[in-house]
Amino acid sequence: MSGTSRTVYLGNIPPETPAEEILGHVRSGQIESVRLLPDKNCAFISFLDSSSATHFHSDAILKKLSIKGQDIKIGWGKPSQVPTSVALAVQQSGASRNVYLGNLPEDIAEEEIREDLGKFGPIDTVKMVREKNIAFVHFLSIGNAVKAVAQLPQEPKWQPPRRVYYGKDRCAYVSKTQQQNAAQYLGIAPGYAHVLNGADRDLISNALAQQSVAAAAVATSAGGVNNLGNRTVYLGNIHPETTIEEICNVVRGGLLHHIRYIPDKHICFVTFIDPTSAASFYALSNLQGLMIHNRRLKIGWGKHSGPLPPAIALAVSGGASRNVYVGNLDETWTEDRLRQDFSEYGEIELVNTLREKSCAFVNFTNIANAIKAIEAVRGKEEYKRFKVNFGKDRCGNPPRQLNQQHNQQAGSHDGLSSPPPGNGFQRSSPSGPGAPGSTNPVSILNTGSTNPLMLYLQAAQAAQPSPQSALPLLSPPDSSAALSANTFTSAAAQAAFYSADASPASQPPSLAPPPSGPHHSASASFGGANGTASPGLANGSGAAPTIGGLLAPASARAAQHARAVSLPVFTQGPFALPAAAAPPLPMPQGAPYGLAIGGEGAHALQGWAEEEVGAQ
Q: What is the mean pLDDT of residues 198-211?
C-alpha cells in the first residue's frame, strides 16, 4: 500500500450521469481506471500516479466542482498500487485507456465500433475523425484498452491495413492556462511556459496542485471559505475618463470570461476563466498596485462567480477566447464597419485593424458573445471569403510587472512587502556545451520567485505574525536556491487548504493586512452591481487558531483528530523530479478522509464536511 492515495472519490453525483460527463471535468493526468457506483451516486477515479490525483483533488475543491448544477463531494479513496500488468504496458508500450483506430473504411459507423470494442470493457467516449478515417475509443480502464490492442488485430476485420494502437488520454491534456499556472509556480520566465510540454508530468501536476492550494489560501483570506473558487475580482476608484479598453490593458495573467464596467459608479468586475488566474491577479494587484490615469485602483473580490459553465469550458479547451480574428481583409473593411457588424452579438471592448497584415481583431467583453459571433458570421455570405477564428486574449499574457521586476528597487506598498529586488530573468550565454539557439533550462528560470500568490501570502504572514507559528513561511527561493535545487514548500498553505478544522461558529482568519485609514482594504469583499462593500473577516479572538497567519492543522488543536493530507514537496531546480525535503503532513492509513464542500459537523469548517471514503 502506498502512503499517498492515487484515487479520488466523487460523491453526490446526479443520477444517470455518464462517465463521459464526469471525466469531462478531469484535466490533471492519465487515468488508470474509473469505477462508477450509480446506486450510491459516487465514483472513484484512480490515476497512474498520486501527483495527478492530488492535482485533481485540489483543483476540484478550488473550483467547487459541480455537475448538472449539483455540488460534488471530493475525498480520497484507499491507497493502492497500479496493477503490475498495467504498469508494464504503460512502461513498455506507452499504454493508455485511449485506443487509436486508423485506416478505417469511410462508411464505418460509430455503433459498429462500439459493438466491436465494447466486448473488452465499458467505454467512456468514441470520437471519430471522418476526414482522416481514424477514431479514438476511451475505455474506463487501461487494462481493458490493453486487452483491446492485443486482441482486436487478431480478428480478420481488424487486421492490416487497419491500425490499432494507443492514443493520448484526454484527461492528461495540459491546457495553456495550466501551463501558465505551473510555469508561474515553478518560477519559469514569462513566455517560456511552452517548455513544460516536454517536462515530466509529475512536475506539472505537483506545480498545479501547489498553485491551487496557494490560490485557495489567497481567495479565502479576504472573503472566507465561501469565496473559494471565485473568479471575479472587483476594481474600484476608477478615473471617470477611463475606458473599458484601458482597463483590459492593465488586466493580465489569465483568459477572461467577461468584464463588466460601470462608469457611473467608477467600478468594474473582471471575471476570469480560471479561479487561480483570478487569485493571482488579485494578489499581484494588491502587492504592486494597479494604476490607470495616475490613479491607484482599489482591489477586492466581487460577488462569487460560481463555477465556469461547462459549455464555456469546452469551448475554451478548443481554443475559444473573447477575441475574434478576421483574416484576408481588404482596405474597404474599416474598423467602423467591423464594429457595426459584430456589435449585434454583444458589447465590444476593442477593434484593432492591422492593414499591413490584412487582418483585424474584434475583442468582446464576454467570451460567450465571441463564440456566438463566430458561429453567426461564418454563415454570412460577405464573410465566407474571410478567415474567421479565435484570436489571443491579451489579458492572458503574463503580467507586465513580472517582466519589469529586474529594474525595480521598490519599497513597500500599503504595508505589504514588495518582491525582493533583482527578480529578473537569467539569460545564459550561448557559449559552452549548448549550441546557439538552444535553451538552457536554467536560463528560463527566474532568479527569484515571481509567483504573486506566494508573495502575497508571505506579505500577509509578515503583516499578521502569529505566536503559534510552527510551520515555515512560504519562502520563495533566491537565485542560488533555484540553481541548487533547494526545495520550495508551501506547508502553511497546505495546512489552510486541507486541514482547516474550525467549528461552524468560528470564522476563518483574514490573511489581508489590517486597514489603515479610510482607503480600501484587501480584506473587504465586494458583491452585486453596486459594488457595496461587505466587511472582511478579521482574525479576532473568536477566530480559529492560526499558524503563520493561516488556519492551523487539526493536529495542532486536537491530536486525536488528525486528518491532514499533504501535497507533494518538490525541488525548484530545472525540471527536477519531486524530492522530499520537509516532513509532509500525515495522511492517516486505513481511514482515508477527504474534504467536501457544503457539509456540516462539529469538526467541519464552514462550507466543508468530512467524507469517510471506504472503497470496497
A: 76
Higher pLDDT, 87 or 428: 87
**Which set of grid coordinates corresponds to residue 389?**
477564428
Are 469 and 211 in contact, with CB atoms under 8 Å apart? no
- Beta bridge partners of residue 485, listed in sequence order: none
Spell out the residues 6+ positions from residue 422 whose beta carbon is closer than 8 angstroms to its own. Answer: 406, 447, 448, 479
CA 528 to chain centre: 25
Whether 411 contacts 155, CB under 8 Å:
no
- Residues making up the chain, counted from first to last: 616
Which residues on adjacent β-strands are paired with residue 11?
73
DSSP letter for each residue of 338-396: HHHHHGGGS-EEEEEEEGGGTEEEEEESBHHHHHHHHHHHTTSGGGTTSEEEE---GGG
Average pLDDT in the chain: 73
Q: How many helices (H) and strands (E) does the chain have?
A: 16, 28
Residue 37 zone, left/alpha/beta (φ > 0; ψ -120 to 50; rest):
beta
Prediction pTM value: 0.63
Which residue pairs from 454-457 have beta carbons closer than 8 angstroms and sit at least 24 positions apart in sequence? Answer: 454/214, 454/490, 455/283, 455/284, 455/287, 455/417, 455/419, 456/218, 456/283, 456/284, 456/286, 456/287, 456/416, 456/511, 457/214, 457/217, 457/218, 457/221, 457/283, 457/492, 457/493, 457/511, 457/549, 457/550
**245: part of which helix (H) or strand (E)?**
helix 244-250
Alpha carbon distance 597, 599 (integer Å): 6
**Which residue, 548, 563, 550, is CA-closest to 604?**
563
- Which ranges in 4-122 belong to alpha helices (H)? 19-23, 50-62, 84-93, 110-118
Q: Is 570 helix (H, G, I), strand (E, B) or coil?
A: strand
d(CA 190, CA 402): 8
The maximal CA–CA distance of the chain, rounded, in angstroms, is 81
**Residues 250/401, Cβ–Cβ less than 8 Å:** no
Cβ(237)–Cβ(289) under 8 Å?
no
Burial 341-364 (b: 16+ CB within 10 A, else e): bbeebbebbbbebeeeeebbbbbb
Query: In this structure, are residues 302 and 262 in contact, taking their beta carbons and an 8 Å threshold?
Result: no
Cis amide leading into 161 (omega within 30): yes
Q: Which of 58-67, 152-161, 565-574 has the lowest mean pLDDT?
A: 565-574
With a cut of 90, say whether residue 497 has pLDDT above it. no
Cell numbers linked to 456? 502575497
SS3 call for 310: helix
Report the pLDDT averaged over residues 572-579.
32
